[in-house]
Amino acid sequence: xxxxANPTLASSACDMVSTxxxxxxxxxxxxxxxxxxxxxxxxxxxxxxxxxxxxxxxxLELHVAAASEYPSKGMDKLGEELPLLQKPVExxxxxxxxxxxxxxxxxxxxxxS
Length: 113
Description:
It is found in: Lipid droplet. By secondary structure, the protein is mostly helical. Helices cover 88% and strands 0% of the residues.
């Protein structure tokens, strides 16, 4: 899970969602109360799940560690083949805008010629 969240793309996307959530939560009071209630619900479910799953994870820890090796290698390979995952969302958006602008300018020049 940590390795999936580590690439710059995933991390910056999470940051953007977090920022959007925080600013939405600062909106009218009724939105804040809905967000607070949702957070409490998620917190309760997480705590209940953690207390139920922890004994199982303790028992299976060695097996989980061995099994996590394969996705880890897969994430390393994916990172090598898709360098886009190492870029922040803002840079991807900026690069995409530049590429589209360049292509539109090229098409415009071609049509003008």
